[in-house]
Design goal:
single chain, 347 residues, alpha/beta, TIM Barrel, eight-stranded parallel sheet, two-stranded antiparallel ribbon, 12 helices
Length: 347
């Protein structure tokens, strides 16, 4: 890396990452922070970008006129400007409506599919008001509870049709598909980045469709997040990441980055750093949950610690003796290489 200008990384998270601690087995345990209070935390925690769902920006948007939605989005843009922040992306929240309980884009009901696409158009309009050209599609309910409920072939076509309609709606918008293999559905139709990029290449404008990889989602698919990232980087389609951690194949835990698998986290930072991620303005995004035990006044530590972990591991990547590593690889002394990496991480 000698002589090469070092990447200055920008970090983002979504307001939902500062939450009240409720889960499927218990109620809230902390008083909520208001939206403006959450926005006020970003700079002091070292973050520049805000990830948004459409209704983070405009609550209850299904009950509002288009003019009211635009007005509220403009107010949030001013709030971002006042706090020195930018919007990274907007994502249509397509999984919490009565019309999408059996899928949004892949519902068996054409009227429900129509609603999902129209809701996505609103997310695009909000993104434009916020000054971002990125729409993230987390295809939360695009799957099945039982296999016989839907045609998997038709479902993939429905998803692609929705993507093409969004691309046609706005000629400047970029779509980032965020794959996940399961939860809330039993199985999802787009479980990995390979599936997501196949859709990208089938779309009407492949240059405007890429991917967002979340560490935990890759682990839930039984895959290594750094390999998934490397795959997308080869295709020049890794346009965002959600770094976190995960303790095995269970529910989506969204643990602080590096808290469970330090070496896995190191390799994620390494593949990003060594392949130029961030040099075109891509954000290092986080999607992490506060532990339920945390008191309200310390319920942002997980964000601070995840960012610090990335920077700590970045220094480990940049100070690794590449010549020694090359020698281990050349001689196929992988036991030696294994210890060399472990020793470097522990030093």
């Amino acid at each position: 890396m000698s002589g090469q200008k070092l990447t200055k990384y920008r970090f983002s998270f979504g307001p939902w990452n500062i939450h009240e601690g409720s889960d499927p087995f218990g109620p809230v345990v902390r008083q909520p922070y208001g939206f403006q209070e959450k926005i006020g935390f970003y700079r002091e925690l070292g973050f520049d970008g805000v990830q948004f769902h459409d209704d983070d920006v405009v609550p209850n948007l299904n009950d509002l006129t288009h003019e009211q939605i635009v007005k509220k989005a403009k107010e949030v843009k001013q709030l971002l400007d006042d706090n020195g922040l930018v919007a990274e992306f907007t994502a249509p929240r397509l999984w919490e409506d009565a019309r999408t309980i059996d899928g949004a884009y892949t519902s068996n009901d054409p009227n429900e599919r129509k609603y999902a696409v129209e809701r996505s158009y609103i997310a695009v309009d909000i993104a434009n008001e916020l000054g971002t050209d990125k729409i993230v599609l987390w295809l939360a309910r695009e799957g099945t509870y039982i296999r016989e409920a839907k045609s998997s072939k038709d479902a993939v076509g429905y998803i692609l049709d929705a993507i093409n309609k969004i691309l046609d709606y706005d000629k400047n918008i970029k779509i980032l598909i965020e794959p996940k293999p399961n939860e809330p559905m039993d199985q999802a139709y787009i479980p990995t980045i390979g599936h997501a990029l196949a859709l990208a290449y089938l779309s009407s404008d492949p240059d405007r469709v890429g991917g967002l990889i979340e560490s935990a989602h890759a682990i839930l698919a039984g895959l290594d997040p750094s390999d998934e990232m490397g795959y997308a980087l080869y295709h020049n389609k890794l346009w965002s990441v959600h770094l976190n951690d995960q303790n095995g194949l269970k529910f989506d835990e969204d643990k602080a980055f590096g808290s469970n698998n330090l070496r896995g986290a190191f390799n994620q930072v390494r593949v990003l750093e060594e392949n130029g991620y961030g040099r075109n303005g891509e954000f290092v995004g986080l999607d992490v949950k506060t532990m339920r035990t945390q008191r309200r006044e310390v319920s942002t530590k997980h964000l601070l610690h995840s960012r610090k972990m990335f920077l700590y591991l970045l220094e480990k990547v940049r100070t690794l003796d590449k010549e020694r590593e090359r020698q281990f690889i050349q001689s196929r002394d992988y036991e030696g290489l294994d210890w060399f990496i472990l020793e470097h991480l522990m030093s």
